[in-house]
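Re-running the complex after MR caught last week's input typo. The corrected sequence lines follow. Everything else is unchanged.
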Amino acid sequence: MSFDLLLEAVLFGILLGCFYAAVSMGLSVSFGLLDVPHVAHPAIMVLGAYCTWVLGRWGIDPILAGVILTAPFFLLGMAVYRFYYEAFEKRGSEAGVRGIAFFFGVALIIEVGLILGFGVDQRMVEAAYIGKSLSFGDIRLPMRTLAVFGVALAMSAVLTLYMSKTFTGRAIKAVAQDEPALRLMGANPVRIKQWAFGIATAAAALGGAMLIVIGPVDPGMDRVYIGRTFAVVVLAGLGSMTGTIAAGLVLGISESIVLIHPDLGASWAPAVSFTLLLVVLGVRPQGLFGR
Amino acid sequence: MRFWIGMAITFAAACGIVAFVNFDYLFFAGYTILMFVMLATAWNILGGYAGYVNFGTPAFFGLGAYTAAVLYKAFALPLPLQILAAAAMSGLLGLVAGVLTMRLRGIFFAIATIALVVIMETLFINWRYAGGATGLQLLRPALTPPFESYIKMLFLLMAGMVLASIALARYIERSWLGRGLRALRDSEEAAECSGVPTLRLKLFACTVSGALMGACGAPMPMYLSFIEPASTFNLNYAIGALASPMIGGTAHWLGPVIGALILSTLQQIVTVTISSEMNVLVIGVLLVVFIVAAPDGILGLYKKIMAAIRK
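Corrected-run output:
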């Protein structure tokens, strides 16, 4: 493999990696911090992508649509968490098995609902920055990837700052660290978690908008993204925001090297994230920046 | 004793149907239903008794199917040997997966098993000899005398395998193995402290569950005369195998059987009358409703109702 090709792969991997980090941010909060086995996160993302597509048909720019969608998805997330809490967390015992199966069922319902509503065909959006590309010498980078890169950076920065600087953000981290202590201080952990889950779902909506900007979307896409998002969150070390960005970059670069490699190519790419996930789980379950 | 009489009657009934009914669709549909009963029973050994959620059913099922197909292509091995080899391979995969995920619990274990499916699928997509992404066409061998059609033979074979796996699941449930698995489901630390060999039991459950799924997948290439990665490693097998015990009840061997019979019969009806998407939606909705409203499944509901009547 030539040096130029490798350089291009790494460069493209960095752009892709930031995107992976951004779509995993929500899961990093809901699963990493709140310990909710949220296997439906990628399905919610794909739902967000389809909502973006619907708004796009009314002439709304996909990224603007993603930002608009964060509001209804925030409420949706609060409702989902409330339901999950009442049905499982409150009752305590055996929440593990049933909680996972519950979110699996939710993902299934979203996926089939989208198939029934929109069919199995791929959907894409149109915008000024989609379809063009920028050239730097020999290296050509598609504008759509650059646009998503920008949004991903902004979103990651906002979420990281929110979690570390604001009162609510710190409260969410406090719930993750020691819930009984928080309860003893007189705070209501359920309300904080509900808020956090809302943020996670809003992040998934914006992630969905990025997903449909970066390429065409179909209803079954959540299955690949289960691997990608969980690989990033586990590799990051549950709930670490800076870790999420680093892990996203690791996944993005390894995937794009496999993609460009002459002997491997696209048919091996889906296995990259899952292999990475298995290796991390087997060797270092606490991740790179584990608590 | 009543159990064994019931088993004998069921098998005799299956033989009777094969001998006297001549309606091929019945056997095609019946084979699928029986297959899901076997997958659900196999899933429940690890998922129900030990409480480890396994999304990896397609990996074990698919490895079994591919083992059978490749052995048939290479050596024209007869079906019983294909099944044994498939069970051995998938059992081995279960053991390896169990060792790899030794330290994992709950959601981490579940995600690791999804990873297994995608990795297996990618391997077989890239393996030319096994047909790659386009698949492999297989010619069925000549029929052996007592059977007049191939699908009838497969139906009877699957019925036999289902009954055998139910007997095995029941044996595990009632022996010290089942008690140990239940102990580690409720609290792995407490079980370990009381001298239950949790790790060995877990590996045992992974291996047996995987081997049964592999055996269940082995006749699939012959059933379709074709094998191809995307449908063989389809997550729908995982959904069926997981939803059936959850709906029927995970504590008793009868739970997955009842759940799978109801679900896959419903599935056949909905697929034929409406659409196959609708059938996945029905499973999804039923799964969520049962998990939330009836955590112990149909068997749990039945017990509750009986208790209420006796009062």
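None of the earlier attempt is carried over here. The longest strand of chain B covers residues 136-137. The mean pLDDT of chain B is 87.
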